Amino acid sequence: MQVHTFGPLNCRIVGNPESARLTVFFCHGYGAPGTDLVALGEELARLRDDFREKIAFVFPEAPTSLDAEGIPGGRAWWPINMAKLQQILQTRELEKLTKAEPPGMVDMRKQFIAFLDEYRERYGVAIKDCILGGFSQGAMLTTEVTMHLPETPAGLCLYSGTLLVSEQWQELAKQKAGLPVFQSHGTVDPVLPFEAAEQLRDLLENAGLDVTFFPFPGPHTIPMPALSATVNMLAACLAARTES
């Protein structure tokens, strides 16, 4: 595993970025350390032999430390008002979640795109050869980033994410028609409502994106069957690059 800094963000890399045909950026969730999803990339590489040779897995680290919030080693892409989120969950007023723009999200999107641009320049990687994704807040961030990219990436991989700024995403998503999306979500997720995930799925599908929706009977997590399904998505993206 390599550790690097590109633009404003640190990251860890599994695989060889110099020779990779596909680059996968996975962003961790709120409160997790920067290393949180590294094991996910290693597991995906283990599940299929050619992934280790042909895919570079990149794990950016959120810039904000949560040590002062009582979460040692935890990081955040932007602040989350947990009391407000819990109130939304209790009242089921999902529009307060799905239509809202979290403070700090736009600035973080700009920082992430600066990171992505510097990484791509360093290794000569085109946007069309990148998959963006993440877990929870990391999934929210990479959805926001994908919507604002000037080109369409190879794919979007969302684990337990949610719908935000729905009116903006609804319009921007039309420019990404055909984009392969893998989206998994637990039906009893106590953190981000399953109903909001369904709304995100519907928004993306209605805009013409190619969504594979993977509901599972579980909480706010990434189950092994979701990883197995992710293998299929990555394999399809690799195959498309072989054919082109």
Automatic annotation (TrEMBL):
It comes from the Bacteria. One of its GO terms (molecular function) is hydrolase activity. Residues 13-235 form the Phospholipase/carboxylesterase/thioesterase domain. Keywords: Hydrolase. Belongs to the AB hydrolase superfamily. AB hydrolase 2 family. PANTHER family: LYSOPHOSPHOLIPASE-LIKE PROTEIN 1 (PTHR10655:SF17), LYSOPHOSPHOLIPASE-RELATED (PTHR10655). This is Phospholipase/Carboxylesterase.
